[in-house]
Each structure stands twice: as structure tokens, then as C-alpha cells.
């Protein structure tokens, strides 16, 4: 869940939503709902990396960094996003998960010849050591990352 969001339950709905001082956007969703996950916001366990921060946050990182190259218009990218957030939350001491929006940061995508998205590249000691191209279920991504987590 993002930093500007909160969970509302049956018990708190009236106070949090119905009696709020201003407008409240309520997202009704379920954990099992695939389309719900496609529109969910950026995860709380991943970090956003830009052209300006890529060298410091990825290439000079102390441990492995999984970089998710994605775009807002990419449906499969939105399907993978919550899975990567879960992985980042489950293995915070083993791997960092960073996200690069290729439309907003074209230099990185060009430098690493990203031709298809989602592409998830593991960087370690400043170089790509593994690439995963295309949306995959969590179990398949974890298997690909087994050397790092």
C-alpha cells in the first residue's frame, strides 16, 4: 500500500469515508482479483529509479538489485508489479527491487537495450547478471532469483 493510502474496514468505514472532511477515493478490491492488482499503485517495498539516480542506486549498490523496466501503458507490467513488491517485502536483506519507467527514463532503457517489457534485470557489482523477459508468475520469478535470495 502506498504512503498516501490507508486500509478501511467495515468497522472504520463510516468514520474514515462517510464522515471525512473532503473527498475520499475508495478502491474496493480483493487479494484474489487479478484485474485489481493491475491497477494497484506502485508498491511500498520497491523503489523508483531514474536516469539521474540509476548509477548510485543500482550500479553502486552493495548487493543485488532487480530492476523492473516497465511503462504505464503495459498491461503485463502492471500484473508483475504487485508480485515484485511482495518479493521485495519478503527478501529485503537479500535483494533490492527497483522500478524504471522506460518512457520517463529512456536513457537507461537505451543503454541496456531494453526491447521488450516487462524486462527484469538483476544487477550485481555494476553489471547485469540475469535478465527475465516477460510477465511470469511469482513462483517462476522466485526460481529465476534463487541464486540471489
Major sheet details:
5 strands, mixed
Could you state the CATH homologous superfamily of the domain at 42-144?
Glutaredoxin
- The helix-strand sequence is HHEHEHEHEEH
Q: Which structural class should the secondary elements be placed in?
A: alpha/beta
**Overall 3D form:** elongated
CATH topology of the domain at 42-144, by name, is Glutaredoxin
Using the CA coordinates, give the radius of gyration.
17 Å
Overall pLDDT level: 86
Count of β-strands: 5
* Helix-residue proportion: 25-40%
Query: Unreliable runs, pLDDT <50, ≥5 residues?
Result: none
Strand proportion: 15-25%
Q: What is the CATH first-level class name of the domain at 42-144? A: Alpha Beta
**From the coordinates shown, what is the CATH architecture of the domain at 42-144?**
3-Layer(aba) Sandwich
Keywords for this entry:
5 strands, Glutaredoxin, about 150 residues, alpha/beta, 5-stranded mixed β-sheet
Short description:
The chain is α/β, with parallel strands linked by helices and 149 residues long.
Amino acid at each position: 500500500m502506498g504512503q498516501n493510502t490507508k486500509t478501511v474496514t467495515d468497522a472504520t468505514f463510516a468514520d474514515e469515508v462517510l464522515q471525512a472532511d473532503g473527498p475520499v477515493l475508495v478502491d474496493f478490491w480483493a487479494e484474489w482479483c487479478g484485474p485489481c492488482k493491475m491497477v494497484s499503485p506502485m508498491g511500498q517495498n520497491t523503489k523508483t529509479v531514474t536516469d539521474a539516480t540509476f548509477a548510485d542506486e543500482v550500479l553502486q549498490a552493495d548487493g543485488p538489485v532487480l530492476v523492473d523496466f516497465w511503462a504505464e501503458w503495459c498491461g503485463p507490467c502492471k500484473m508483475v508489479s504487485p508480485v515484485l513488491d511482495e518479493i521485495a517485502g519478503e527478501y529485503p536483506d537479500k535483494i533490492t527491487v527497483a522500478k524504471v519507467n522506460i518512457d520517463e527514463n529512456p536513457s537507461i532503457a537505451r543503454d541496456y537495450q531494453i526491447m521488450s517489457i516487462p524486462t527484469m534485470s538483476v544487477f550485481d557489482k555494476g553489471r547485469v547478471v540475469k535478465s527475465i523477459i516477460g510477465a511470469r508468475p511469482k513462483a517462476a520469478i522466485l526460481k529465476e532469483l534463487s541464486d540471489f535470495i
